[in-house]
Amino acid sequence: MDTELSSFASVAIAILGGAIRVSTPFLFVSLGEVLTERSGRINLGLEGTLVFGAMAGYALAYITGSPWIGVLGAALVGSVFGLVHGAICSLPRVNDIAIGIAMMLLGLGLAFFFGKPYIQPVAPDLPAISFGWWSELPQVRAALSVNVLFLIGAVLAVVLWWMFRATRVGLILRVVGDSTDAARAMGLRPALIRTLATAAGGAFAGVGGAYLSLYYPGSWNEGISSGQGLMAVALVIFARWNPIACFGAALLFGGAGALGPALQSVGVSEGYYLFYAAPYVLTLAVLIATSSRTHALTGAPGELSITK
């Protein structure tokens, strides 16, 4: 019995630590997508932005010796991708979903092309804060070693929630996202506002990519993302376009992603690899659950392409 309890505790601790580590890219990409979708535009190109941000952040960190310069560089290239996406989508008779897929392929292709020289070099890692100093167990200390970007992402989730509820900027984004005609009647420029929101969302996704290459897993390779940018779109729908709910949903997806490694860490050697598919199964379940006639897209901005 004691052995079973010990194994259960070990798995729980491993899932907790893994959820914190794995959830950070989901968190940043989903927050960026909330910004974009609240303005009335969907960006399916964030997978490409995430991967290119991971490559650019790693390359800049290696060249400069500073991981924070890498993060800033990743945010910059992410905003450029978002700006290009937004500018193209502002043209007449352009479908933002199709453009998003094209931008995703462009980002992946550019990352693979420019990133080949940086597969072998080692860049400096982002710092982490240890919240497990009180424990003598190395598993607890490892689980509670929290990267700074995770903490920044948690704060940003609260800031965005407050912005949408209580600031002029948030009100403008909500009006533009709900009704183009109402926004124009107020003297606003919906195309410009959506382009800026898409650029900001791209910057968030770029930071999420920098986290992947500069902390967990902490290296650059062409398969670094595993579809996290696309899964984050489903996460936003699941969270009902609420930044704080995105934080909780990111932890849920992160926990699902940590399930396989957690089982492997306690000696489960048969079938554990099936649990590596947990994030994809969860994504499918979320899409099915949110596609019902009664609850589909509840709270979605009225101008989103997926609502029309």
- Tell me the strand percentage band: under 5%
- Rg: 20 Å
Spatial strand order of the main sheet: 1-2
Point out poorly predicted stretches: 1-5
User: Which CATH first-tier class would you pick?
Assistant: Mainly Alpha
List how many beta strands DSSP finds. 2
The CATH architecture can be given as: Orthogonal Bundle
Largest sheet: number of strands, sense, barrel closure: 2 strands, antiparallel
Q: In one word, what is the shape?
A: globular
Structural class: mainly alpha
Mean pLDDT: 88
Give the termini separation: 56 Å
How is this structure best described in words?
- There is one protein chain.
- With 308 residues, this protein is mainly α.
- It has a single domain (2-125, 143-307), classed as ABC transporter involved in vitamin B12 uptake, BtuC, CATH 1.10.3470.
- The protein has 12 helices and 2 strands, in the order ααααβαβααααααα.
- 69% of the residues lie in helices and 2% in strands.
- 49% of the residues are buried.
- The N and C termini lie far apart (56 Å).
- Strands 1-2 form a two-stranded antiparallel ribbon.
- Helix 2 runs parallel beside helix 4.
- The model is unreliable at 1-5 (pLDDT under 50).
